[in-house]
Amino acid sequence: MPHSEKPVDQERIVERVQRHGDSIWALIEAQGMATRAPFPDPRTLRSFSLGEVAEILGVSGSYLRQLSIDGLGPTPELGTAGRRSYTLGQINELRDYLASSRPKEALKFCPRRRQGDKLQIISVVAGPASTTTSFYLAQGLALQGFRVLAIDLDSHGSLSGMFGYYSFGYPVHNASMYAAIRYDDDQKSIRSVIQPTLFDGLHLVPGSAELSIFEEDCGRLFRSENFKYPDASSRMVSALKEVDADYDVVVLSCGDGGFLTAGAYEAATGVLVTVRPEMPDIVSMTSSLYSFTHFVALIERAGRTVNHDFFKYLVTRHDPRDVSQQKSIAMLREPLGDDLLTATVWESDAIRQAGDKGRSLYELSSGSVGRSSYEQAMKSLNSANAEIMDIMSEVWGRAPFYVSQASRSTTAGKASSESRGLSK
What we know:
Layout: H1 13-30, E1 39-40, E2 48-49, H2 50-57, H3 61-69, E3 77-78, E4 84-86, H4 88-101, H5 106-109, E5 120-124, H6 130-143, E6 148-153, H7 158-162, E7 165-166, H8 178-181, E8 195-196, E9 202-205, H9 211-224, H10 232-241, E10 249-254, H11 258-267, E11 270-275, H12 279-301, E12 310-318, H13 323-336, E13 340-346, H14 349-356, H15 371-395, H16 402-408, H17 416-419
Parallel strand pairs: 5-10, 5-11, 6-9, 6-10, 11-12, 12-13
Antiparallel strand pairs: 1-7, 2-4, 3-4, 8-9
C-alpha cells in the first residue's frame, strides 16, 4: 500500500512528536525540575507510635513512656488522647541515650560498626523482586540504627523510583554512580552524587540512563584490549573506599549491566540472590550463578582476588499455600543448605498496594493497606532482614540476636498494645 501523500507544508508526525517533547520539557524546566533531575518526590516520613518504637528498640512501651514522663531522651509528639509518637531521627536519639545509660546493651541499641569492623557491602543480584528486596533491606537496616548507603546500578533507575527519585530515563549528567567510575576528565567523587532519603541515616546514589554509557565505554575497552578485562570493577571498589568511614552497610542493587554487575561483585563483602520458587525463575537464577562465576573468573584473571563473607539465597514472592512452591523450596534446600535463608518473603497484596502508592510498608500504617495483610507482609520482610543482620553480626564477631528478637515481637510496624489503647 502506497504512503498517503500529504501537502509539503503539513507537519510530519516525527516533527509533531519532537515539538511535543520540546514543549513539555520546556514546561518542566520552567518549574525548575529538569535541572535537579533525578529529583525527589516531595514527601515526608510518618512518625512511629510508642508501641512501634518499643518493638524496634526491643524494650517495653511502659519503659519508654516513663522515660518521656521523666523528661529523659527526646521529647515525643503528643497526639490524640496523649498518644506519643517519635520521628525516626528521635528514635536514633533514643538509641544513643539508651546505649549510654545501659552500656552493657550498647550494641543492641546502637549496632553501628566499631573500630576494626569492616564496611558491609551487600550486592543484590538482579532477579525476581530484587529491587524491592534492596529497597526493604536498606530501609529495614536504617530502622535498626545502621548507617546505610543504597546504590542503584540500574540504568532505568528502578530502585531510585521507589525512593522517590525520578530521572525519566534521561542520562542526567553526573547524577549516578557513573560520575564516580567514568573514564574521562569529568569523573567526580562519589560524595557528589549521594542524595538524602526520608529515612534518617539512609542515603541513596540514584540510577540514571547514563549508567548505560559506562557499559558502552567498558565494552569498547574490552574489545580494543583483545578481551582483557578492563579495570571497571576496581573503579567501583575505589569509589566505595571514599565513603568507607561514613556507613555501616552499602546495598548495591544490580541492574542488567554486565560490567556494573561485575563491579558490584568485586566490591561486595556479601552477595544476595533472590529466587521465586517457580521452575522458570529457578532456571533463570541458575543462569545468574554461572554469570557470577564468569565475572569472578575474569576479575581474577586480571590479577585481583574476589572474596565474600557470605553468598546467600532468598526466596521471594512465596505463596506458602502453593504445594508446588513448597516442593521447589525443598528441592533448593538440598543443594544450597544453609546458604538458602530460612525466612521467605511472601507474595503480598500489601507490598503491591504500598508500591502503587509510591511507598514502602515501613512508610505506611497498617490501615493504609489492610491490617492483616500488612502485619503478615511485615513479619516476612522483618524475618528476612533479621537473618541478614545476624549474618552481618557474625562477620563483625558479634553474637546474633536479630532472628530471636524478630520471633519474639509482632512486627516493626504493628503496636499490639496500642491497638488495645494501652500505648501512650
